[in-house]
Amino acid sequence: MKILLFICGEGLGHTGRCLSLGKEFLAAGHEVNFGAYGYSKGLVQKTGYSAYEIPSEIKLAGEAGTFDIRKSIKETLNNLSPSGFRKILRLIEKLDPDVVLSDGYYTGILAAQKRKVPVYFIGHQFNMEEFFWKKGLFAGIAGIFVKRFYNYVFSSVDGIIVPDYPLPYSVNRKNFTISRAVNDNIFFSGPLIRCRYQEAGEKAFKRPNVLSTIGAFGYRAAVFRNVLEAAKLDPSIYYTFISGPEIDPEQFSKVPENVEFTGFTENPFPYYKGSDLVITAGGHGTIMESLAFGLPILSFPDEKHAEQENNASVLEEAGYGKRMSYLTPPEVILACIREIFEDENYSKKTRRLMELAEVLDGPAAVRKFLEEKHRG
Asked: Which keywords are on file for this protein (predicted)?
């Protein structure tokens, strides 16, 4: 098969999933092309693949740790243009794929349907209307149109691939409100992880080691600082900070000896394997990677970002970690870290998810699913 993968560039979780699929399809002898933009396109290229530049689509905006729906709507509308849609149409015509997979990139879905190419939506969020609740008249009206649009998309695609554990283990289960009419088109693949646990190398950290991935956006620097202050309170616990593209580690002074900064890395998996706990935001991609490596999580979801807040709530309710806040002080962060290390139930539950991820083998499951659908 010739497969075209479109990637939403808002958050690198979309990119990681598509890279895992690209690796799997290529290993099985299929032809793969990527369409991406921004950090996403850069990560695809750093991984060793080529990628076609596509127009950006959804834009997420926020300030001081709070998601701003009005600003996000405005920036998204400013991004959309007929010329962008025509560019995607021309790309599909040029590459002539047998199947299009679109991870959160809606223009790719509409263009594939226009060209009558089978298209599958990859996503973990199916209740986007929550973003617009109680945000004023303008946001409310926008929410009505958004809900109608994505309900059309979900009912018109050839299939929906959910890159999460099947129920009852799904982390996205609070974000999964979808019409029963499309149930037959839904496929829970399991986590789509670029590197399986058994394949990953392991960083030789002093233990216990806390891995912090906070830093993908500049407004998360406040959490970054609080975790750093928590590290100063107990030198017997070690910390590794993977800072995101917009965070310069040199801005932080008086770094204690039990803290190591690594900057941004395209390959976090040896860091997961060498750690005992992950501190992250509420993004689905990093949560899946952490759980697939058997790690409990302290999740700091962006405030008023309904999807991330739901993910963090599930983590706490299921006993996979704790839901934190941008207002959580360093002393409480340290208390939560100690509680997770002292209570073995957290690690027992996340190790079970690691074993389940190995059995499900999400990338191979998606490949087999599509090969079965499109034989010949």
From this structure: Transferase
Pairing label, strands 62-63, 66-67 = antiparallel
Q: Give the C-alpha separation, 266 to 43, whole Å.
A: 7
Distance separating alpha carbons of residues 348 and 57, to the nearest angstrom? 40
pLDDT digits (tens, 9 = 90+) for 343-366: 999 999 999 999 999 999 999 999
277 CB-near residues (< 8 Å, 6+ apart): 208, 209, 210, 211, 295, 296, 297, 298, 337, 340, 341
Distance from C-alpha of 299 to C-alpha of 285, rounded to nearest angstrom = 12
Whole-number pLDDT of residue 144: 65
Domain extent, residue 321, equals: 197-357
Amino acid at 3: I
Asked whether residue 78 falls in the same domain as residue 203, the answer is: no
d(CA 285, CA 89) in angstroms, rounded, equals 28
Statement to judge: residues 339 and 278 lie in one domain? yes
Instruction: Name which of 25, 33, 31 is nearest 7 in CA terms.
Output: 33
- Over the stretch 127-150, which tens digit does the pLDDT of each residue have? 665 555 555 665 566 666 767 777
Burial category of 29 from C-beta neighbours within 10 Å (exposed 0-12, middle 13-18, buried 19 and up): exposed
- Is residue 303 domain-shared with residue 330, that is, in the same domain? yes
